[in-house]
Amino acid sequence: xxxxxxxxxxxxxxxxxAVCPVWSQAKAEKxxxxxxxxxxxxxxxxxxxxxxxxxxxxYDQLNARLNQWQRCFGHVSSExxxxxxxxxxxxxxxxxxxxxxxxxxxxxxxxxxxxxxxxQPKVDGVAVTLVYQGGKLVRAISRGNGVKGxxxxxxxxxxxxxxxxxxxPLANSxxxxxxxxxxxxxxxxxxGGMNMRAKVVGAMMRHNDSALLRQLGVFIWAxxxxxxxxxxxxxxxxxxxxxxxxxxxxxxxxxNAVEAQRSAWHTTAxxxxxxxxxxRSADEPAGDGWLPGEGRWVVAWKYTPVAQVAEVRGIQFGxxxxxxxxxxxxxxxxxxxxxxxxxxxxxxxxxxxxxxxxPGDQVLISxxxxxxPRFDRVVWRGANRKKPEPPALQYHSLTCFxxxxxxxxxxxxxxxxLSSKQGLGIxxxxxxxxxxxxxxxxxxxxxxxxxxxxxxxxxxxxxxxGRGLSLWHRxxxxxxxxFIRWVTAMGIPLTKATLNAVGAASWQALNQRSxxxxxxxxGTGEEKAQQVxxxxxxxxxxxxARWLAEQHINGF
Length: 556
Fold this sequence. Notes:
The protein is α+β, with helices and mostly antiparallel strands.
């Protein structure tokens, strides 16, 4: 009985949103007959044999999909039935971030090695540092990269739930916590994230929108260098006005207790959205030892992501910086938690071919780490199997330094990498900006932008004069970047750490190293060493190096 009830509920919820496929009547008939037969097989197995051959959620969604198709095409149904903010203000104590555990067993193992454990809901918001000096709030800083963030002091002073003055042990303190959207009686399992995090960021970015800021709360989850005993910390925070911390921080006596509380908070009305539970040890190190990614005394066990069935609309091929061809499935939009998902990566061409996915197939997707859509599996293959052809040209690490009609994807991927933080760090210039520049100035190669004049940049269509001037200044600053960063930007198949270990300060010094010299470096095997030598001596790379020398770039 439950199958029919859940199927009806899903169908009812989706009727106003469903879009009919653009099919001929013949194709529709073929697809409806095929899916009807599959659902009948699942029903027979379930009702007659007591065997469930498909996940309940997948069954419900495909059953609703079938009913939708039948309505769309007048078919009589035989059954009734969803960027890290960065900045320049240094945190007094770095944000470590929270390591994730994937299971109860993994959490249990982590807990066995630690003492004085407490648990908190993983509040779904935006991390912030609050700095109090002499009893006054003097600075509020966004998480940023954990070391530096944006100055949010003015906005935070407009948030009523954040005390502006503190006394006693908190008068001179650094607090870390979560700014969240206040949503009383929020039940996470029913409501999901409701785009709460985006709302908080929006409120913080609108510097003078006091109405939005009044809707924010704060949950303090760390007091670096505070009292060693958690209860003492909680009492002090509560007296200071941070009442939620004491209310929602509980002793974690066992992994079973954590599991039970995780489930309770998932289904209980709370004043905020959550995406899991956090377990932390009160035995944390001094604040000057905190580093991004190294918070070994705290872990999070997130809720199981919601999965959705989505129809594949198309298959796209993309060429990355190194020449690797990636495959992306374009989807009928579905909502996962608070995200509208329209695309999902299928990995390499080889993997895509193995998966055998074509337009019209139904795939199950969910949210992986950082909210990235993840392909789980194919749940239904369409009746028509027309597989598109991947790019015929073979791309690799030595192709597409120079612009040409067959090279544009890899060419722009190289430029995008070049301007990223991993490359030369040209702030504010991504793929769209590079395409705009190339459209007007027709780059010969990936470094042609170095010759653009101030007048050329300021008169580029699509750029304001101010942006053009700013880019001109940035390009001039980039000229002074260290040699290693230029080599990295070119795409040498080595990490920056390995290059730094070499200590070579010139192109000539790099070229003089043999394969054996490269192989002597830690983590560099015979194959990698030869790859580096081949790359350094490749004609297109050599031409670029000589051109950079003509531009008087460091080390060339």
